[in-house]
Design goal:
The protein is mainly beta and 85 residues long. Helices cover 9% and strands 40% of the residues. Strand 1 (6-11) and strand 2 form a beta hairpin.
Length: 85
């Protein structure tokens, strides 16, 4: 069985696209770089430790099929880095 491939494309720290070779894969993003935001945003959770309270945005990512990489700049970057060959 082949490994599942997941490709995450970021631009300036923001997720732009996610591609996955397994249509049934569940992908969850946990972003610790959350600025103060709307308290009604249920995707932002507060995690308390002994010393601090940390905020994280947690959301499910819907990935596109890995075939959507074909011909994209993301595919060209992966090819240039000689990854996944």
């Amino acid at each position: 069985m082949a490994n599942t491939a997941i490709v995450i494309s970021l631009y300036r720290g923001m997720v732009q696209n996610v591609y996955c070779s397994d249509a049934d894969a569940e992908i969850v993003l946990v972003d610790w770089g959350v600025e103060p935001c709307d308290p009604s945003d249920t995707r932002v959770v507060q995690i308390k430790t002994r010393r601090n309270v940390h905020s994280a945005l947690v959301q499910e990512i819907i990935a596109g099929p890995i075939e959507d990489l074909a011909g994209s700049m993301v595919e060209r970057a992966i090819d240039a880095a000689c990854i996944g060959g």
